Description:
Blueprint: H1 22-31, H2 37-57, E1 67-69, H3 76-84, H4 103-111, E2 121-123, E3 130-132, E4 135-136, H5 148-158, E5 163-168, H6 170-175, E6 178-179, H7 193-210, E7 214-218, H8 231-247, E8 257-262, H9 273-278, E9 284-288, E10 306-312, H10 322-330, E11 339-344, H11 369-372, H12 376-392, H13 398-412, H14 420-427, H15 439-450, H16 467-477, H17 483-504, H18 521-524, E12 528-531, E13 538-541, E14 544-546, E15 550-556, H19 563-570, E16 578-582, H20 584-589, E17 592-593, H21 599-619, E18 624-628, H22 643-658, E19 666-671, H23 680-685, E20 690-693, H24 702-708, E21 714-717, H25 730-743, H26 762-783
Parallel strand pairs: 1-5, 4-6, 5-7, 7-8, 8-9, 9-10, 10-11, 15-17, 16-18, 18-19, 19-20, 20-21
Antiparallel strand pairs: 2-3, 12-15, 13-14
Helix pairs in contact: 1-2, 5-7, 7-8, 10-12, 16-17, 21-22, 25-26
Amino acid sequence: MSAPTFPSxxxxxxxxxxxxxxxxxxxxxxxxGKTTADELEATASALRVAAARRxxxxxxxxxxxxxPGSFSYYDQVLDVVALLGAVPSRFASLTDADxxxxxxxxxxxxxxxxxxxxLEMTKWFDTNYHYLVPEIxxxxxxRFADDRVVRQFVEARDAGVVTRPVVVGPxxxxxxxxxxxxxxPGFSPLSRLADVLPVYVELxxxxxxxxxxxxxxxxxxxxxxxxxxxxxxxxxxxxxxYRVLATELAVGTERPAILVGAPFGGLQxxxxxxxxxxxxxxxxxxxxxxxxxxxxxxxxxxxxxxxxAGVIDGHNVWRADLAAKLxxxxxxxxxxxxxxxxxxxxxxxxxxxxxxxxxxxxxxIDARLRDxxxxxxxxxxxxxxxxxxxxxxxxxxADQLEASRAAVASRAVASGVVVPAVRExxxxxxxxxxxxxxxxxxxxxxQAKLNLPxxxxxxxxxxxxxxxIRRARALNAKGELPDADYTAAMQDEIRRVVELQEQxxxxxxxxxxxxxxxxxxxxxxxxxxxxxxxxxxxxxxxSRCVRPPIxxxxxxxxxxxxxxxxxxxxxxxxxxVKGMLTGPVTIxxxxxxxxxxxxxxxxxxxxxxxxxxxxxxxxAGIGIIQVDxxxxxxxxxxxxxxxxxxxxxxxxxFRLATAGVDAETQIxxxxxxxxxxxxxxxxxxxxADVTSVEAARSRMEIVPELAEAGYARGIGPGVYDIxxxxxxxxxxxxxxxxxAVKSIDSRLVWVNPDCGLKTRRYEETVASLENLxxxxxxxxxxxx
Length: 784
């Protein structure tokens, strides 16, 4: 049986949280016990069907598999854990006789319960999306435990839309997994490929039986040579996987046609991933032509295959010049493919739903941006226009091509995009603007000023944001709560947080950040060159959603941002207080950033604005200033050849922000939820006096790596995993601290949670911090 024709235009995935975060609200209601699993299933079903029909309305074909079925309740990698029944042994009691998890069990694996820690969480390639890391051992059972993918295809089919189910591919799933604690030394999860493939075979057969014409298996491991598994092993595994899944199964009768997605970079590299996939019997290959280079042709094996040209950027929000994109697609004719169609570079999971969902009339967002932006729905429209141009010719879409060209041109010359004073200041920087001097002298000066105990305790910055805080901020934003009353309410909260920290016994205090809606958005609202949306929500992990600001012009700081809050806090206590800022790399990583100049230039502009803020904090008497860079690892290019240049400008922008302070001012930074081993040199290069890092879920994995690398400044490895509702016991925190001081000089160790406490409730926060302080006292006593 011949393979079905791939649609002329498609997208690799679509936002799953709902235009108004309906899924988030439904999931959190279920967690709170306010709704049942059946009610959650009904809400999710309605969202899935509405999304499928919306994509058809936007121009995707309803009958050919053009509409992706990319839904997840929490995480697409966790979905494969459930599919395979690959549940860690500590959660085995949550599965039924067939290895299946119900919804409550699924969420427990993600979030933990009691003494059972959840799966570790880390960044999904170079995005701000977090995935859950599977734990695989030699004995992890694999079986077709969850047919949810098939049921969701049938649900859409019965609603009139033939979707293309999207599943993380078997090689990427195993390559991103970690060896379970009970594994033998040197065990690699990828060695279990032969045990996993039969489950994928069962899935493909079930989808074929249900009538699915296409399935999408995502293999982004192919574009990265910086994951733990060597590229040669990944490529050998891909060859074997698609021999089993494509060659040995008959298309149409035993399996759908297979599209292999390879987002987040180019398939070229040490090993040619495109040639590798072309040599398999898969029917279609998607290329990321935004981050990846256009491959040179012809490529052996592509005849008869479809190349999906990912020319519409799924990872940023700028409107495309459609004529230029069409030129690029038409330039792929020399690859020798059976056909070339249009798609997105990545899933649209990483962008908001709809530009038109903003109020462009009330002045809250610069109205000029409306013409410059393309969110998920607009990107689907761009794909549809390009697809029509391929089938009907350019004349059929001439108006749309001209409109896109005019929008791109208007953005280039708009006021504020270039600010001469900003460019002149950046051009005048010298090497001395990036250096602080000797660390040993700084450390002595700081200890003389701060007089901190052994193993100083602190938090990362934010405290729980109560409904009252959020309500006050919302009312103030609407003009219903006067600024003076709002400030008074926030000051009352700060007083409460300071008193609480003193009662718990923390050594270095924070103000809790009640005035901040988000650690990046707050600064974007106070810096020129940014715009902030009202409904531009994007999933970060699970039910956690963020609204990334849009960085569209040159960046300036019109006035101090945090000084009044910090000085008010310092007036309430005799203990040291940290000033809290977000670093330049993280502001870029968690924003949608202009694409018309190098990222390093934009980072330096943000760095200069923060440098001015830090100078004002120091002048106001704030002796500890934390500049958070949790996204340092996130933006690291997936190809090693590109990493040195990135690390150079990212580290430089942090040093530019922080290098202007006196020796006695202590600079902290914070990094979280990434694998840090490959950027230890950059962490050291930041030259912060104290660096706090996520370490609780990984059980101090980073600490020996830091010690081996010769890291010799203050380090705060997290001992409390704040992304789980669990309260770690005193004994658990003590054990983690003991692991830390075995590897690092105890005089350098700080004690803190993994991350900020904004998303936690006060009851679990207080109990956890009390245990943290008790554990610290116990280890101090051991150290004498």
